[in-house]
Amino acid sequence: MSYLGTTQTLFVKEVSNEGAYLDGHDLGEVFLPKNEIRDELEAGDSISVFIYLDNANLPTATVKKPHAQVGEYALLRVKEINSIGAFLDWGLEKDVLAPFNEQKPRMQEGHSYLVRLYLDNASQRICASTNFNRFLSKDEPEYTRLQEVDLIVAGKTDIGYKVLIEESHFGVVFYNMVFKNLFVGQKLKGFVQKVREDGKIDVVLEKPGMGKVSELGDKIMEKLKNEGGILAIGDKSDPELIKKVFSTSKANYKKAIGGLFKQELIEIEAKSIRLKSK
């Protein structure tokens, strides 16, 4: 089967002066315009294309890659707003529509929003939505403590960053647990810290424990070697400096350099560390 809003490999049925007609299976013929054909095509060849509806609501193919496909999240900019909704730039000539009833909050022209693309069943139009709750799992979260999960930064709240966990549940990363720059739409790994009785989920970006400290120790050693054996960050240095250089907390940094000191790899001073002479 072929699906609108996805990239698929289709076979060429016919090539004309206007373009190529592809076998779209249940979608019927899918037209690929001539200006989209980069290599010689013949009947029977296969080609990878993204399928969407053109302005006449006919299945059309493009070799361009949109910023997101149906079922995916992306940060998209609003190009225009009219009486039916906002039109967002998703990397194709035809913009994608975010209907007003799918906007939470109401979008503004020129601003960018994290959206999820979906296929409207009634119109078969590919649309964008910021109403994420209707796409999330209705099941109770069953994550285990310190389970590694995929995250998408969805926004900022009074207490921390709101994140999508495995695209199934919302969670929060508290501001005092963030040691790197985050932005809406960013995709990264994290760890479930706690699932509360009310179903709310706390997430951290650094896994606690010696495993994390060991990994940080490797980064510190590499940085020391690149800096000629001396680094102006000691156990009394400003936490913000440590956060800027190593994207970690001062507590983790002190544990890491303490471990390196015990291994007799470095010497520690108040405002610096250095490789130990052999």
UniProtKB/TrEMBL annotation:
Name of a matching Pfam family: WHD_CvfB
Record domain Conserved virulence factor B first S1: where: 4-64, 70-129
Conserved virulence factor B-like winged helix domain segment(s): 218-275
Family: Belongs to the CvfB family.
Protein name listed in UniProt: S1-like domain-containing RNA-binding protein
Organism, as annotated: Pseudoalteromonas marina
